[in-house]
Amino acid sequence: MENRIKIQEVQPTAWKAMYGLSNYLNTVQLTKSQLELIKIRASQINGCAFCIDMHSKDALKNGETAQRIFLLNAWKETGLFSEEEKILLAITEEVTLINKEGLTTSTYEKAKIFFSEEVIAQIIMTVVIINAWNRIAISTQMPVTV
C-alpha cells in the first residue's frame, strides 16, 4: 500500500467532528451487537478491510460469535439472525446501497414493527456514520494491523 495522507493530521477539525459523530453512537438505544453488525455489514459491502477487521474484533470482544460474523454477508440464507436483526441488516444494505432503491417502503414498514421512529433514526445514523468512515479508510488506504 502506498503512503497516503492522514486526515487526522491534515484536517484535525474534520477528524474531530467525525469522532463526535461516532461518540453519538454511545448514546443510542441499539445494543453493542446491533451496532457492530451494522458496521461490519456496511464495511463488507463497501470493501473496507480496515473497518471489517476493527469491527469484527470489537464484535468478538462484545460476545458476538465467529460463526455469525463469518456468515454475515450471507445473512439472508441462514437462520442465525433474528427477524429484528434481519430488518436491521436490510436497512444497513439499502442505505449503504442508496443508489439502488434507497430505504424501501417495505423495509421501512417492517422496521416499524420492531423499532420506534427514534431507533430507526439511530439505525440510519449508524449506517451513515460507518459509511463515512469506510470512505475515509478506503480513500486514505488505512492499513489493517495485526
Q: Which CATH class?
A: Mainly Alpha
Given as residue ranges, the uncertain stretches (5+ residues, pLDDT < 50) are none
Strand content: under 5%
Number of E-state strands: 0
What is the SS-derived class?
Answer: mainly alpha
**Helix content, binned percent:** 55-70%
Principal-axis shape equals globular
Distance between the termini: 15 Å
Mean of residue pLDDT values: 96
- Total helix count? 8
CATH architecture: Up-down Bundle
* Domain unit count: 1
Detail the topology: elements first, then pairings.
Elements: H1 7-10, H2 12-24, H3 32-46, H4 49-61, H5 66-70, H6 83-96, H7 105-114, H8 117-139
Helix pairs in contact: 3-4, 3-6, 3-8, 6-7, 6-8
Describe the structure.
This protein is an all-alpha fold and 146 residues long. The protein has one domain: AhpD-like (Up-down Bundle). The protein contains eight helices and no strands. The protein has helices at residues 7-10, 12-24, 32-46, 49-61, 66-70, 83-96, 105-114, 117-139. Helix 3 (32-46) runs parallel beside helix 6, helix 6 packs antiparallel against helix 7 and helix 6 packs across helix 8. The longest helix is centred in the C-terminal third of the chain and has 23 residues, at 117-139. The radius of gyration is 15 Å and the shape is globular. The chain starts with 6 loop residues before the first helix and ends in a 7-residue tail after the last helix.
